[in-house]
Every structure is written in structure tokens, then in C-alpha cells.
Design goal:
The chain has helices at 3-11, 28-38, 83-93, 110-125, 166-179, 197-205, 223-234, 248-258, 265-275, 282-293, 311-323, 333-340, 363-373, 387-395, 405-430, 450-457, 466-484, and strands at residues 15-19, 44-48, 73-76, 97-100, 129-131, 137-140, 145-148, 156-163, 183-188, 212-217, 238-243, 278-280, 303-308, 327-328, 353-354, 379-383, 434-437, 462-463. The protein has 486 residues and is α/β, with parallel strands linked by helices. The longest helix is centred in the C-terminal third of the chain and has 26 residues, at 405-430. The two termini are 43 Å apart.
Length: 486
């Protein structure tokens, strides 16, 4: 069986055995089985535990060898001392893939390292594709497979992630759900006894359901192979890399987390940038970069048009654009004349285009279209949408609401929803990046802002601040410069 086909069985299994399945809510064997079933997975699931007990309404087995049908994937959550015997059963059953959640190996020192080496040797000798140990789980949102410890069920999307940390991946899945950009696949590579980071990157780079690959790296076992794998992946996909263990304290933490071998961060960062991948620092950058890369078309240059409902936001956005290597576009007289038709008489006729709290109902949508049309503009940042919906939600609690405010609020909400549909049309029509930022994203009043939700469902990223919008756009723009060589 070809390696790609075997990976397909790992990520698209028709049958799964959870070895160590339990009714005890304090055990991961319960949570992983529960997440598989609760997430809506449609394949066959077999709980295996030492007593052969039924779990969550499913018939239990005392050994994987007792299961009557072939098993594509075994998720192993047993005590470390029992792992070797379980792997022997999996080999006899001729299981295609095993994923070991069990921890307590190379991350704990020499004795654990020796046990991990024994596991590696056994898996290789018996042709077992082994993920982990010390891994968090496997996700394929496209088939509702959430075989993991974390209680996150990300929507189906086009981003796949391999992470040497389970909780970093769990955080990204939660953030993806919040901003509606979704996941295709995720795997926590753990200690990488057999399957390693480059193996997963190679698989994702050939996966038709993946457009963007994210790799969270703490330790590097084979730097040359990893760089080659990332370089090859960038020829087919958009790739983002984040490195943990960049400081002395971080290095120590990485070694105790996954037993990771580390390397010089500056050298590694330089090598990554030469591959064509995007290198980010921290979860916020990763989140912002991921959502813009998975959604937006590539700009043909670094010139940005800014449309804002408030002058201060525009100034901060212009500063941020220049800081991150973007250029605030000089608007042509033709573009300015078009904007004159919807802007208030007192507008400054400059970029950022500031409506200064005035303008007409069409100011935002027509202003965006004018900037997208302009030959001197490669990307557009809009500042201040969804504020009307936020205000109407607050006004809904006013004691004057039933005295006419209700009708005004309804009109405002409808108008903002119309803007969403218009932005969607403009993005498809002009094929230029359209990025939004609004302080309504902060959700300070506990409001489910349906305008922001709808924008993100349409694939338009919305950021918390002008600075974050500009930096995210700079990631996309720098990537475009390498890819399109403009």
C-alpha cells in the first residue's frame, strides 16, 4: 500500500478502535470516545478495555483482536506499562494505523527515551504507522472525525495543521470556530517516535482538501528533511510555520514537553523564510495570518486603500501599514472624483478615505468598490463595520425602545446586512483582498454580532484592531511578492 493511501486511512478511517475506552469522566479514554461519537463520525467505532465493558452504548471488547472486522485506526489510551502488549495485538490484527495518546516517554528522560525507542523499533519492524506517543489526537472535520482529547469540533474548512503541541492545536481550532474559517485536518504529532513532522506536511501538501498548512514546531529532529518538506509544500500550498522554544526558558519547556531537540532559532527562521513559507511569532499572529491566508486572493502589490468611519482609526491604520511594509496608496484624481459623489462635502480627499461620521447610505459599499476598482490600489482595509448592529443591540435594552427606537434599529440592522452581501459581491468581482477591522469584534457587551458572523461566513476576515488588520495583510502581501514575484 502506498504511503499516501495509508495516511488516507489514518485521516479517513472507516473503522476505529479506542483502546482504553472508559466510562470514567476523569480518563481520556472516555473523552476521546465521547468526542468521536458526539462529533458525528459515521464510521464504526469499537471501545476496547481490559474488562470488555460496553461504553456509551457500544459493545465493548477486551482486545482489539476480538473485533470481527478490519480496523483502520486504533487510538491508544492505556497506561504506559500496557502499551507494548497493546501494540503487539494491533500488529497481529494488522491494523493500518495507530495513534498513541499515552505519555511518559522521551519527555521524561533517559528511561522514557529507551521505552520510546523500543516502541519505534517494534512499530517499524511490524509495519505499523504510529503517531505519537504523547499526542492529543486526530481530526478530520470533513468527515466529522474528532478523535482527540479537547472538546472542540471545528467546522469543515481548507486549513490543515500539524502541531508538536496538542493544546496549541486545540486553541487554533477554537479560534477557527470563532471566526468561521474552519479546519480540514489536524494531528498532534507528540514525541514523533515513528511518524514525524515532515511526514504530515508531505501528506497535507498532496491533500486536495487542504489549501493552507500550519506547522507548530518545538523540536527539530532532522532539520534538512524538515526544510525540504516545507519547501516542497510551498510549491502547492500556502504554508505557515510557528516555532516554540525560541528563548532559553522556552527551550527548557520544549524539552520537558515533548523531549524535543532544539536548534538555533535565528538560523531556523532564516531557513524557513527561504522556503517560501510564512514565519509567525505567537498565537495571535498565527490566528490572524491563518484566517487571511485561507480566505483572501493574492494582491498584485503592496498599495493599500483605507476606508474609515473615524479619523483616528485611519491614522493608526496608515501608521501600521507603513510599519509592516505596506504602502498607503496615493489616490488618482479619477478615484477622488468618484468618492466625491458619496462622501460628505467636508471630507479631506485623501487616503485614508475618512467619511468623518457623515456620508450617504452607499458611502461604505460604493467607497469600497471605488477603491477596489482603482488601478493604484492592490488591497483594501475597511475600518468600522458592524457598529450599527452593536449600537442597536444596546439600544434594544433602552426604556425608550418601544417608543420608536425599535423601528430605527430594524432599519439599521437591515442596512448593515445589505453591506455584507455587497462586500461579498465586490470580493468576487474584483479579486482583490478586502480586510475589515472594527472594535465591535471585541464583543464588550456580550452581543452575538450577526453582521460580523455573516461577514466571516462569507470569507471576509474581521480583525480586532487596525494594527492587526494591517499586519495580517502584510503577511499575505509578502507571501504574494514571493509567489507572484511582482
Amino acid at each position: 500500500m502506498k504511503e499516501t493511501e495509508r495516511f488516507n486511512k489514518m485521516f479517513n478511517p472507516q473503522t476505529i478502535a479506542v483502546i482504553g475506552a472508559s466510562y470514567n469522566l476523569k480518563k481520556w479514554g472516555f473523552h476521546i470516545l465521547h468526542n468521536i461519537l458526539n462529533g458525528g463520525y459515521k464510521g464504526k467505532v469499537f471501545p476496547v478495555n481490559i474488562r470488555g465493558e460496553d461504553v456509551l452504548g457500544l459493545k465493548g471488547y477486551s482486545s482489539i483482536k476480538e473485533i470481527e472486522v478490519p480496523v483502520d485506526l486504533a487510538i491508544i489510551v492505556v497506561p504506559r506499562e500496557s502499551l507494548f502488549d497493546v501494540l503487539k495485538d494491533c500488529a497481529e490484527k494488522k491494523v493500518n494505523s495507530v495513534f498513541v495518546v499515552t505519555a511518559g516517554f522521551a519527555e521524561l528522560g533517559e528511561a522514557g527515551k529507551k521505552m520510546q525507542e523500543d516502541i519505534r523499533d517494534f512499530a517499524i519492524q511490524n509495519d505499523l504507522m504510529l503517531g505519537g506517543p504523547n499526542g492529543e489526537g486526530i481530526v478530520n472535520a470533513r468527515i466529522n472525525l474528532y478523535a482527540q482529547m479537547a472538546v472542540h469540533y471545528p467546522k469543515a474548512g481548507r486549513l490543515s495543521m500539524v502541531s508538536q503541541s496538542g493544546n496549541v492545536g486545540a486553541t487554533m481550532m477554537q479560534l477557527a470556530n470563532m471566526s468561521c474559517f474552519g479546519f480540514s485536518k489536524f494531528i498532534s504529532s507528540g514525541n514523533e517516535a515513528v511518524l514525524k513532522l515532515p511526514d504530515y506536511i508531505d501528506y497535507f501538501s498532496n491533500d486536495d482538501e487542504t489549501d493552507v498548512i500550519v506547522a507548530y514546531i518545538e523540536g527539530i529532529k532532522d532539520g534538512k528533511r524538515l526544510i525540504e518538506s516545507i519547501k516542497n509544500a510551498t510549491q502547492k500550498k500556502r504554508v505557515i510555520v510557528i516555532k516554540g522554544g525560541r528563548t532559553e526558558g522556552g527551550l527548557r519547556a520544549a524539552q520537558s514537553h515533548t523531549g524535543a531537540m532544539t536548534s538555533d532559532t535565528a538560523i531556523f527562521e532564516a531557513a524557513i523564510k527561504q522556503t517560501g513559507a510564512i514565519y509567525v511569532e505567537g498565537l495571535q499572529e498565527l490566528y490572524d495570518c491563518a484566517q487571511i491566508l485561507v480566505r483572501e486572493p493574492l494582491p498584485k502589490g503592496n498599495r493599500v486603500g483605507i476606508l474609515t468611519v473615524g479619523g483616528g482609526w485611519g491614522v493608526l491604520c496608515a501608521d501600521a501599514c507603513e510599519k509592516y511594509g505596506l504602502k498607503v496608496a496615493k489616490l488618482s484624481e479619477e478615484t477622488l472624483k468618484k468618492l466625491d459623489t458619496v462622501m460628505p462635502q467636508w471630507w479631506a480627499r485623501n487616503n485614508p478615505v475618512d467619511s468623518a461620521g457623515g456620508g450617504k447610505r452607499r458611502t461604505m459599499t460604493y467607497g469600497v468598490e471605488v477603491l477596489l476598482q482603482a488601478e493604484e490600489v492592490d488591497s483594501v482595509i475597511v475600518l468600522g463595520n458592524a457598529l450599527g448592529y452593536m449600537s442597536t443591540s444596546i439600544l434594544g435594552k433602552s426604556r425608550f425602545y418601544d417608543q420608536g427606537l425599535n423601528m430605527v434599529c430594524a432599519v439599521l440592522k437591515d442596512a448593515e446586512m445589505e453591506i455584507v452581501e455587497e462586500y461579498d459581491r465586490l470580493l468576487l468581482t474584483y479579486n482583490k483582498p478586502l480586510v475589515l477591522s472594527t472594535d465591535a469584534k471585541h464583543n464588550a457587551y456580550g452581543i452575538q454580532n450577526e453582521v460580523i458572523l455573516k461577514l466571516e461566513e462569507k470569507g471576509i476576515p474581521v480583525f480586532h484592531s487596525p494594527e492587526r488588520a494591517a499586519k495580517a495583510l502584510s503577511f499575505l502581501t509578502n507571501y504574494s511578492k514571493k509567489k507572484l514575484r511582482w
